[in-house]
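Contributing new records

If you add data, match the layout below exactly. Sequence lines come first and carry their own label; structure lines follow with theirs. Keep one chain per record. Anything else will be rejected by the validation script.
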Amino acid sequence: MSRQAVEQALGKLVLDCEFRAAFFSDPPRAAHHAGLDLTDGERETLALIRPGALAAFNQYLDRKRTMAMLLVSESD
């Protein structure tokens, strides 16, 4: 019901593959179980995002984190 709840849900959709699967199976139940206070409209809007796009973004972030960790360890 707030921008913060939508941001939390979006982050969870990107980073948590179990939540992502649950959300796209049953958005109201998954959101409630995760403690996310989303309106029907917010859940519907988030459900328009392709799950594959969320998974691809997660993989992109993983690669960036790995590269950053490698750079830090090389400079030590």
